[in-house]
Structure formats: C-alpha cells, structure tokens
Amino acid sequence: MVDKRKKVLLITDSFPPRTGGASLRMRGLAKYLPCYGWDATVLTVDLPGDPDEKYRVIQVPYPGDVTEQIKAKLRLNPQEGLQDQIGIPAQVSRAKNPVTGKIFKRIEGWLTYPDQKRRWKPVAEAAIQDLLSRENYHALISSSPPEITHLIAAQVSSEFDIPWIADFRDLWTGNHYYAYDWLRKFVDQRLELVTLANASAMVTVSKPLCKTQGSIHKQAWIVPITNGFDPDEIKPSELDDKFSITYTGKLYQGKRDPELLFKVLHDLLQEGAIHGDLLVKFYGYKMYWVEALVNKYGLSNYAFQYGTVVRKTALEAQRSSQILLALNWDNPKDAGVYTGKIFEYLAAKRPILALGGPQGVVSKLLDETNTGFHLKAEEEVRKALTSWYEEYREKGFIAYQGNEMIHDYSHEKMAQKYSQVLNEIC
Description:
The chain is built from 15 helices and 13 strands. It is an alpha/beta fold. It folds into 3 domains: about 5-65 and about 115-230 and about 410-425, Rossmann fold (3-Layer(aba) Sandwich), CATH 3.40.50; about 65-110, no CATH class; about 230-410, 3-Layer(aba) Sandwich (Rossmann fold), CATH 3.40.50.2000. Helix 9 crosses helix 14. It is globular, with a radius of gyration of 23 Å.
C-alpha cells in the first residue's frame, strides 16, 4: 500500500512552552494537520522547557538578538536597555527628547536589519540542510514575525525545490505599526519582494490584511486563515458568584485601556443600578496608570490587578467569569486585526464585551458566533451592562448565547484550511 501521508516543516521562533500568539498558532497546526494527512515537524529556537512529547520539535540553539550581541561587545548589561546605557535619553513623551529618540530608533533600525533574530539564520539553515539530507519533506511553512523565518524558508525552498507557504501573523512592511523610518521601509520592502517572489502561497489572518498584502505582492496567491482556539480547551467551569468582568492580556494607556468601562461602572454604582457584588479582574502586567484610573473612578473596592499568571490560570479565570472584556486598539487601520485573546474567549464560552477600535473583523466574529457585543458609545456600554446585571441578579449567572459558528475559529478548522493550501501547492 502506498503511504499517502505527507510531511511539512514548520519554521518558527516560538512554540510551547514558550507563550504567545505565534506558539499557539504553530501548535494548532502541529496538532491538527495530521488529521488531514500532513505530519508536521517544528523547527524552532531553543525553548525554555521541554515541549510536549506528542510533537516532533527540533530546537536549534539561538545565538541571541543583535542588540544582545552589541551590548556584549560594549560590555554593557544585557538585561538593561541599550539606549539608556549608552547615554541617549529615552523619549518619554512626544514633547520630550523627540530628536534623540528618533535618531536612536533610526540607528537601531539599521543595526538590527533585517530583524533582531538575524543571527539565527545560518544555524537554522544548517539544521534544516542536515534534516533534509536524511528525510524528505513535501512542503515548508514559515511564520512571522520575525521575518527572518521567511528568509530561511526562501533559501531552503530554492535549494531543495520544496513548495513553501509564508505565514504572516502580522504583515511585514504592510504593517500599519511598522516601526522604522521611510528609508528603512524602502529597503525592507525591496527585501520583502525579493524574498517572497518564489513563495508558493502566502497566508495571513484576515481578509483586510490579505488585501493590504496583495497591494504589495500583486501576483501572489494570498489566503486568509485566522488564528483560533484549541477545541480541547473547551471545559466546563463553576462561575464566579459575583458580577465579574475579566480581562487577560496587555494594556496600553490611551490605546487599549479600560477607562470607558470604568466610567460607566462608576455611574451605574452611583445610581444604584449596580451594587457591591461587582468584581473587575485584570490578569497581565500590573500598570500604575490602571491603578490611577481605578482610584479616579472610585472602583478600588471592585477592580483589581492580579499580575501575570501562567496560561492555565488565565484560562480558568476566563471560564469562571460572568463577562469577558476585550479591548481593541483605537486605530482605524485595525479593522482587520483580531485581538490576541478573542479566540481564547470563544473557548471559554462566556459572553464577550469588546470595547474600542473600528468596526471590523472582531465585530463580525462576535455577530456570527452570537458571543457578545462590540461597542464604542458610552450609552451602548451602559445599556449592555445594565441588561447583563439584571439577568445576573435574577438568575445568579449570565447565560452563554454562543452558537456552533465558534468552531469556524478553532485550530482544527485552521489546520483544515491550511491542508487545502498545502495540497494545492503540492
């Protein structure tokens, strides 16, 4: 009997136990691609612990970021910022040190070209060449950021004539948060065009980002495949006995912050529309400015920052919360961007309140799955919270209303879509 199974090599800088969106996306592919006839091998940098034995993971020692190398040569502390140690003042705000901040950013941009992890390229390529001297692979997938993964894949694809998919969790020069100046961007875009010229396909996480990527790579086949959640992480949990609202993840002052929520909760408490059974929980880095907002709106008895926790604890907190809070970046160009935690929230099977940002893919997801609301106006937020609180007081909990469409955003569905692209390029 002929073995119809095929092998794909995933090239990534992140895989569990390292945390982050990259590791979860790659783990989802490694876990579920075999269900669709593709056995995955993961090639990644050395990890902070042992990966799950069910996955085949090749760890390639990582020489360190470019800035770490520069610090070592200058005999500086690798744990402290380069800018501070060489005596260039940090740009605290737009009003302070704008010139020095811009100059340093420009210097940093060229020192780290094409990205911070460029020193991984030769050792990763050597490891792949050794692997391919012993085994046959039918396809490659490189996932960025960092973009060095695509440079590695382009070299290997050309040398061994293997079809290749370039996966973009964030776009390269098409990213609206691109960090460097126009000259670096010009050089980067030329590198991007040359590097990806022979990619068999490109994948990114939403249709709007596909459109942006297509404006740069006009003849390329670009496919939208969202991130997702692991179906195995859907588990029942006992709900909080309080009217709890939970956020897990990073916060950014003025861009992804909870001030609108705090203002509405303050007003509802003052009016007696919500009582002392309110509990607002934040899991992630503790921020001084969040504490200042808590105090400003008189919520010190109701809102708490619990700091960073292991992922298992964060998932348990999501499952037990009456409401899950998603905060979107207030940038009109973010219409094609999913917040990193929105898929975990789907797995938690709790109502979602998304605040801020433009109407876009997050709004569509919540509407399709009937899992919550994406709101911007203060009165809309007030109305939603009042309704949920009345339900909580009446029943003791808030009912989950999501439908089966959530499974369109699972890792299993993600891998199925990926397998179709893999089958096509092979």
